[in-house]
Amino acid sequence: MEYDLRQCYLFAHLDDQQFAVVEQMAHGAKLRDGQLFFQAGDPATHFFLVVSGQIKLTRLSMQGQEKVIEIITPGQTFAEALMFGEQPDYPVNAQAMGETELLVFESDPFKEILRGSVETCFHLLADLSQRLRMLIREIDNLTLQSASCRVASFLWNRWCLVKSQGDSFELQAPKGVIASRLSVTPETFSRILHNFSDQGVIRVEGSRVDVLDNEQLQAFTASDGKLAQIPPEKV
Predict the structure, then answer these.
(1) Which part of the chain is CATH 2.60.120.10?
(2) How many CB atoms are located within 10 Å of the residue 130 CB?
(3) Could you give the angle at the alpha carbon of 79 between the alpha carbons of 78 and 85, nearest 5°?
């Protein structure tokens, strides 16, 4: 399993000696589709980097319903913040989505490396701060936005990532997983997609989404999913 660890913010600013320790520390793990990697409550002794595939982080409600907290994609790390807790446990379940490859790192040895790399500590704090802001924004979305707004925002953000290459993109996870991530039922998610399709804003074929009217889609991010009038652009 080959991966340039220097691409990861956790390792990009280490000196050569520190980086050599990290390389020796890392070991690979291959997961099959649907394999549970760890469960909530397991001791958090390691953190991870996704090389290929995806990891779904979930929690179970009191009724046994699965809530998707986050989907970790290639190049992203997870569980690194837990190394700073006293006797920490993983607060979520981690499950592979598709064939997945990870790099695994021990937390305690890496903490010793951090003691000698102030710059890496600042980058880690910056990343944690950004994630905190994202969580606050997500709470705002869940409490202030309608289901249609949340779905429209999800589609709009995905389109913004690929618009330089065209107006189409693939959903990177099953629709049921995306629905859980957006805190809507799968039925509601499908109904909203059909509504947007009927209004000529998007076209959905399997996992492929074609954005037909990006201005109207953007308008839906701040409305209830009904056609809105878009003011003309200023010349």
Answers:
(1) 5-143
(2) 10
(3) 155
Rounded to two decimals, the pTM is 0.75
Q: Which phi-psi region, left, alpha or beta, contains residue 64 (left: φ > 0; alpha: ψ -120 to 50)? A: left
CA distance 154 to 152: 5
Asked whether 175 and 189 are in contact (CB, 8 A), the reply is: yes
Structure tokens of 5?
């660890």
**Residues of each domain in the chain carrying CATH 1.10.10.10:** 146-220
Q: Which residue has the tokens 């037909």?
A: 212
User: What is the separation of C-alpha 180 from the centre of its chain, rounded to a whole number of angstroms?
Assistant: 13
Range with the poorest average pLDDT among 33-37, 85-89, 185-189, 226-230: 226-230
Interatomic CA distance for residues 180 and 97, integer angstroms: 14
Q: Helical H runs in the chain?
A: 16-25, 107-114, 118-144, 147-162, 175-181, 186-198, 214-220
Q: Give strand pairing partners of 57.
A: 70, 94
Task: Say if strands 46-60 and 66-72 run parallel, antiparallel, or are unpaired.
Answer: antiparallel
pLDDT in tens, 190-213: 999 999 999 999 999 999 999 999
Topology of the domain covering 5-143:
Jelly Rolls (2.60.120)
Pair of tokens at residue 175: 């629709």
Per CATH, which fold does 146-220 belong to? Arc Repressor Mutant, subunit A (1.10.10)
